[in-house]
């Protein structure tokens, strides 16, 4: 008994926050990175001769996809079929309703979970009987507490596995909120969770956890990504082993204090090439030199650095953490309060018409979008102050 | 903070000048151009640094060439220091703690910390107060005034408001919520929208792709159907081809069948073989018989190994000669003995007979002659009994010997004569003997010659008659002759024996042949009977008939076999069908029709396959044209860019709000305190005319003592100025809880009447209790409690 738990494949993910200036070869790699990571996994699945693969949600990045990507998926699953590997697929908040969209026929080794919680059974070549319970999103939100609909462990099976796309929280929250307690109560042998992109274990035995995505999708998803290869240990507990699939490695380079641009280049040079391109975000705490500060703000530093970094490193962004500009100002507390007031009252629709794409409008309502706004606002004031 | 003393080394019109400011209210009085503002500027410069030569700003270069700068002594809450700044371009700062006398390291930092959070601008905004500010008020439009007054509670509010204005303009140029605006962000947004629509087209591609997939499936199933039909046609063709082939076989078989006739007798192989063998045997027997018959003709032979007759003749001859020679030899011996006896009579040579009387001795010669005749006679007799021609030889020999004897006799006489020299006595006594001796010698000689001659002759004759190369008779002596005789005799004997044996063998052989002949003749007859039986069996007369009959029979069998072979190749079920078909062309026509159909279907399949290929190519194209991912990434990048732009735009918009909010917050917060202080001052400055004021979001209203409420724009210029002064004093007072810097009032209140001016001084006196006040003016009437520096 051996299977793969791979949530959040996000096939065809488009990478936000990358520049148009990115070289064509990197852009291509970026575009195909989720697919390549997926194909890495398929290859490994066949090599490892696993019994089945669990894809608990966000398999596709979006509900709709092009023929090329569908073709790759169909071919990959057919390949698994040839190798007698089953596929259990449920959709998440990103790829909800994929099965209702135009899609190539799924090979018959693929079992798709419906909106309502259902349990599928599979008998392995070893004779072991496995029950898998899951559900699919049919909308981008799942406010109902789905976990309550999950049945208790079946007694006539060797293992009972739960596939669940959601996050810890209270009932009514958008992503099928659950509590660890709820899952433990079901007595399952393994909970293959999806939705959270950072690999994490919520409970050791039985395992409840997120495998994370196969490929970091933005500058915040740093480090190696991959899937879990799960097999029983001596005491028949299902134990996950992490397997890398990363195509592009996102990394953050923190620099406390920047006096000279060469501080950055030196640090970058010390990064060793691990056979995969690195997308680097540079995080600077403090910039003393006003000339450099200006160069960073104008994007000159970024351009200069991109020219002198090794080919396998692409610098995505340089972020300068602004210590609040008005520190020690007489009215500091009022300015801070005012900023909080402005941001809490902030409603994007007061500023942008509906013509502006919803994704953009939504972005500014996210935490990171608002963080960016705060930083820009502070920069504006800081400029003014210097003038 | 309190400024206790200043020393100006060189600054504007001042040089090497020291001023002490012992009290908290310091008035500096002087006419215009007396240097009041220079002192104020010197103090501010000592605290915050010298002014830079930007634009038209006055930098107060010393007029008399003194060294730029100076020092001040300041009381900070925790220390008393002397601050010295010199040099405008390369200025240096030096601070000494007066109590300890130590110089402070990093003086700039130290001083900034003491003055925190103030900078020069903020200091100006809060603690500096000039007539300029007041005169501005009278010139300002109502709304601006409102704003200024409203934001007076916030530090640096004017500057912030200016920034807010700039941002407002900038952001308005970037984007507007109107749909068809050509502003940068509107254009970019439209572009993005267009690109997004383009991407959605990719979903159409998916439909096309799926449609093609379905079409491919349909055509594939058509191909399958066609292929099945094709297979059935091909099978049919196969059957027809087989039928045509079998039909040919049937025809062939029928032709052969015609050749098969009942009349032809089948002759068994055994029989023909037996017949032929018998024939061969008979021939062999016949040959044998002939050979045997020839063998019977053979007769008794006379052949000998040698010519017996010749041998015998030679033998007789030899014997004769041998006898004769024997006799001669014995005669010779006798003569020789006689001679010897005579010789023995003499010591030396026997002398010759002296006279012819010795002829008496011839009798002795007669005896010799008789001997010779007898020998010849004996020879003749012998020849006569054995071989008649031998007589002739005997005669000849006889004659010949006689002649010889006589010749010798004569000779012996001669010899006797020759021996006549011997002594007479002896000769006489011995005369007979001596007379005998020549004759003896003669006789010996004669006999010896005769012998050798005869031997020679015999050798010659013998070898001529019976000698061969292998068998040469060498006869030199009589013994040789004896040997030759015995040889001849034995050979004759042997030859005769052999001859006899041979003849015996011939007889036996012929007897055998006779018996064999009988046997073979029986066999011959037997074979003949066998043949006859076989001929009778098949009713043939002779060999030739039988052989022809057999040939026919074999041909017949061959035809039968071929017929059966051909028929065997035709499946049973087809045979009956085939014999009903009139001719082959019917089948051939069917086949060609069937082939045509096959070809049509094959073409059809090829066309369908082309169709499938077309679909596949289209699918491939759709796949390779599938820029969905790439387009999406492009769009994402565009979005990133758009987000950056909108972020700038929003940041500006929000900053405007932030500024307003901050200003309103800070002023609002201070307003309760400020309101109290401001109301206090405003009330005093208006001598109780106004009793209350209301700070509203965008406005300030004042209330008179008879409860009339006025908007700012409803107030007179003077009252507006009084309100402004009241608010400004209130602000300095409220802020002094954070930092209490001296308040600098430069030539203010010119528009105030004397009463109000006095009141202002009173107010400033109150303020100076909390913080130092520098009052610069052209005149001061009431100097009580005020340290006045009269310039």
Topology:
The complex is a heterodimer of chains A (387) and B (791).
Chain A (H helix, E strand, L loop, with lengths): L2 E3 L18 H25 L3 E5 L10 H16 L3 E5 L19 E3 L5 E6 L5 E6 L24 E7 L14 H6 L4 E5 L5 E4 L3 E4 L15 E7 L5 E7 L4 E10 L2 H9 L8 E10 L2 H9 L1 H9 L4 E8 L11 H14 L12 H8 L1 H20 L1
Parallel strand pairs in A: 1-2, 2-3, 3-4, 6-7, 7-8, 8-10, 13-14, 14-15
Antiparallel strand pairs in A: 1-11, 5-6, 9-10, 11-12
Helix pairs in contact in A: 1-2
Chain B lengths: L1 E10 L2 E7 L4 E5 L6 H13 L20 E7 L4 E7 L5 E6 L9 H9 L4 H8 E3 H9 L2 H9 L6 H18 L9 H76 L9 H28 L11 H38 L15 H26 L2 H30 L5 H6 L1 H35 L12 H61 L4 H27 L2 H7 L5 H41 L3 H58 L4 E7 L2 E6 L4 E3 L5 H19 L7 E4 L7 H15 L4 E5 L9 E4 L1
Helix pairs in contact in B: 4-19, 6-18, 7-15, 7-17, 7-18, 8-14, 9-10, 9-13, 9-14, 10-11, 10-13, 11-13, 18-19
Q: What's this entry about, in short?
A:
Chain A is α/β, with parallel strands linked by helices.
Write up this protein.
- The complex is a heterodimer of chains A (387) and B (791).
- Chain A is α/β, with parallel strands linked by helices.
- Chain A contains 9 helices and 15 strands.
- Chain A has helices spanning 24-48, 67-82, 180-185, 261-269, 290-298, 300-308, 332-345, 358-365, 367-386; strands spanning 3-5, 52-56, 86-90, 110-112, 118-123, 129-134, 159-165, 190-194, 200-203, 207-210, 226-232, 238-244, 249-258, 278-287, 313-320.
- With 791 residues, chain B is α/β, with parallel strands linked by helices.
- Chain B has helices spanning 36-48, 107-115, 120-127, 131-139, 142-150, 157-174, 184-259, 269-296, 308-345, 361-386, 389-418, 424-429, 431-465, 478-538, 543-569, 572-578, 584-624, 628-685, 717-735, 754-768; strands at residues 2-11, 14-20, 25-29, 69-75, 80-86, 92-97, 128-130, 690-696, 699-704, 709-711, 743-746, 773-777, 787-790.
- In chain B, a hairpin with a 2-residue loop joins strand 1 (2-11) and strand 2 (14-20).
- In chain B, helix 4 crosses helix 19, helix 6 packs antiparallel against helix 18 and helix 7 (184-259) runs antiparallel to helix 17.
- The longest helix of chain B is centred in the first third of the chain and has 76 residues, at 184-259.
- The radius of gyration of chain B is 95 Å and the shape is elongated.
- Chain B starts with a strand and ends with a strand.
- Classes of the chains: A alpha/beta (387), B alpha/beta (791).
- Chains A and B meet through helix 1, helix 2, helix 7, helix 8 and helix 9 of A and helix 6, helix 7, helix 17 and helix 18 of B.
């Amino acid at each position: 008994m051996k299977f793969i738990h791979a949530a959040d494949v996000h096939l065809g993910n488009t990478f936000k926050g990358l520049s148009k200036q990115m070289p064509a070869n990197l852009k291509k790699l970026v575009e195909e990175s989720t697919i390549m990571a997926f194909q890495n996994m398929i290859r490994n699945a066949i090599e490892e001769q696993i019994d089945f693969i669990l894809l608990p949600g966000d398999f596709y990045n979006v509900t709709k996809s092009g023929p090329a990507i569908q073709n790759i998926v169909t071919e990959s699953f057919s390949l698994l079929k040839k190798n007698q590997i089953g596929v259990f697929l449920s959709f998440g908040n990103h790829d909800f309703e994929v099965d209702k969209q135009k899609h190539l026929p799924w090979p018959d080794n693929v079992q798709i979970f419906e909106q309502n919680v259902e349990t599928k059974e599979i008998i392995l070549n070893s004779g072991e009987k496995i029950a898998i319970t899951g559900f699919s999103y049919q909308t981008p939100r799942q406010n109902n507490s789905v976990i309550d609909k999950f049945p208790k462990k079946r007694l006539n099976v060797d293992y009972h596995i739960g596939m669940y796309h959601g996050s810890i929280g209270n009932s009514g929250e958008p992503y099928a909120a659950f509590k660890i307690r709820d899952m433990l109560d079901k007595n399952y042998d393994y909970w293959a969770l999806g939705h959270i992109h950072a690999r994490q274990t919520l409970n050791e035995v039985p395992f409840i956890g997120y495998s994370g995505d196969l490929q970091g999708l933005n500058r915040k998803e740093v480090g190696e990504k991959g899937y879990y290869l799960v097999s029983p240990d001596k005491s028949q507990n299902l134990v996950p082993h992490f397997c890398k699939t990363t195509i592009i490695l996102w990394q953050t380079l923190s620099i406390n204090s920047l006096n000279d641009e060469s501080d950055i280049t030196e640090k970058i040079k010390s990064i060793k090439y691990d056979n995969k391109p690195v997308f680097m975000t540079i995080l600077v705490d403090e910039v003393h030199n006003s000339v450099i500060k200006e160069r960073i703000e104008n994007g000159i530093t970024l351009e200069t650095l991109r020219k002198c970094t090794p080919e396998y490193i692409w610098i995505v962004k340089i972020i300068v953490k602004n210590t609040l500009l008005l520190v020690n100002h007489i009215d500091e507390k009022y300015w801070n309060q005012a900023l909080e007031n402005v941001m809490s009252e902030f409603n994007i629709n007061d500023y942008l018409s509906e013509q502006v794409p919803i994704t953009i409008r939504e972005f500014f309502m996210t935490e990171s979008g608002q963080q960016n706004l705060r930083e820009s606002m502070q920069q504006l004031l800081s400029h003014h102050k210097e003038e | 903070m309190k400024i206790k003393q200043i020393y100006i080394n060189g600054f504007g019109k001042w040089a090497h000048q020291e001023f002490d400011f012992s009290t908290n209210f310091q008035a500096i009085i002087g006419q215009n151009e007396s240097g009041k503002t220079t002192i104020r500027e010197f103090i501010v410069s000592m605290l915050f640094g010298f002014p830079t030569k930007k634009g038209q700003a006055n930098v107060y270069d010393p007029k008399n060439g003194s060294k730029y700068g100076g020092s001040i002594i300041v009381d900070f809450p925790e220390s008393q220091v002397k601050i010295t700044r010199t040099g405008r371009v390369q200025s240096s700062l030096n601070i000494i703690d007066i109590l300890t006398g130590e110089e402070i390291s990093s003086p700039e930092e130290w001083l900034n910390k003491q003055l925190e959070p103030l900078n020069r601008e903020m200091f100006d905004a809060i603690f500096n107060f000039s007539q300029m500010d007041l005169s501005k008020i009278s010139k300002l439009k109502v709304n601006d005034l409102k704003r200024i007054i409203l934001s007076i509670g916030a530090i640096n509010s004017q500057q912030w408001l200016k920034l807010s204005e700039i941002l407002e303009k900038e952001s308005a140029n970037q984007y507007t919520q109107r749909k068809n605006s050509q502003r940068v962000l509107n254009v970019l947004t439209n572009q993005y929208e267009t690109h997004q629509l383009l991407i959605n087209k990719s979903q159409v591609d998916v439909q096309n792709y799926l449609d093609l997939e379905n079409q491919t499936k349909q055509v594939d199933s058509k191909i399958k159907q066609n292929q099945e039909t094709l297979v059935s046609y091909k099978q049919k063709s196969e059957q027809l081809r087989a039928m045509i082939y079998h039909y040919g076989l049937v025809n062939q078989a029928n032709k052969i069948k015609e050749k098969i006739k009942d009349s032809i007798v089948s002759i068994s192989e055994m029989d023909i073989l037996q017949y032929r063998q018998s024939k061969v045997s008979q021939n062999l027997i016949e040959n044998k018989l002939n050979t045997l018959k020839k063998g019977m003709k053979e007769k008794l032979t006379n052949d000998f190994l040698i010519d017996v007759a010749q041998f015998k003749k030679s033998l007789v001859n030899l014997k004769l000669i041998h006898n004769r020679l024997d006799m001669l030899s014995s005669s010779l011996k006798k003569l020789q003995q006689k001679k010897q006896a005579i010789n023995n009579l003499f010591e030396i040579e026997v002398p010759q007979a002296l006279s012819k009387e010795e002829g008496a001795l011839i009798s002795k010669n007669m005896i010799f002659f008789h001997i010779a005749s007898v020998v010849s006679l004996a020879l003749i007799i012998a020849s006569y009994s054995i071989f008649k021609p031998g007589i002739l030889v005997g005669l000849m020999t006889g004659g010949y010997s006689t002649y010889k004897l006589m010749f010798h006799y004569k000779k012996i006489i001669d010899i006797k004569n020759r021996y006549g020299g011997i002594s007479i006595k002896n000769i006489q006594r011995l005369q007979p003997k001596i007379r005998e001796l020549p004759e003896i010698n003669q006789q010996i000689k004669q006999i010896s010659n005769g012998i050798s001659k005869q031997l020679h002759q015999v050798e010659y004759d013998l070898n001529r008659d019976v000698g061969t190369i292998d068998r040469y008779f060498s006869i030199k002596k009589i013994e040789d002759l004896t040997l030759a005789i015995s040889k001849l005799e034995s050979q004759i004997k042997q030859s005769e024996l052999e001859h006899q044996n041979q003849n015996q063998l011939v007889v036996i052989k012929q007897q055998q042949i006779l018996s064999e002949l009988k046997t073979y003749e029986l066999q011959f007859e037997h074979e003949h009977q066998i043949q006859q039986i076989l001929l009778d069996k098949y009713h043939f007369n002779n060999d030739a008939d039988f052989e022809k009959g057999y040939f026919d029979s074999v041909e017949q069998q061959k035809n039968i076999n071929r017929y059966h072979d051909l028929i065997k190749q035709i499946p049973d079920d087809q045979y009956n069908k085939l014999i009903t078909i009139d001719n082959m062309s019917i089948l051939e026509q069917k086949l060609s029709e069937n082939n045509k159909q096959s070809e049509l279907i094959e073409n059809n399949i090829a066309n369908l396959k082309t169709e499938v290929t077309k679909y596949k190519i289209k699918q491939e194209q759709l796949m390779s044209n599938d820029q969905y991912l790439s387009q999406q990434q492009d769009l994402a990048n565009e979005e990133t860019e758009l987000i950056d732009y909108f972020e700038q735009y929003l940041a500006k918009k929000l900053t405007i709000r932030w500024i307003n909010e901050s200003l309103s917050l800070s002023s609002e917060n201070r307003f309760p305190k400020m309101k109290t202080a401001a109301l206090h001052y405003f009330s005093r400055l208006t001598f109780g005319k106004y009793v209350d004021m209301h700070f509203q979001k965008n406005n300030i209203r004042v209330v008179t003592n008879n409860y009339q409420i006025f908007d700012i724009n409803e107030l007179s210029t003077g009252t507006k100025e009084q309100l402004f002064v009241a608010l400004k004093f209130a602000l300095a007072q409220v802020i002094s809880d954070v930092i209490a810097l001296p308040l600098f009032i430069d030539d203010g209140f010119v528009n105030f009447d004397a009463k109000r001016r006095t009141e202002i001084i009173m107010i400033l006196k109150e303020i100076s209790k909390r913080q130092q006040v520098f009052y610069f003016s052209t005149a001061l009437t009431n100097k009580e409690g005020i340290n006045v520096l009269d310039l």
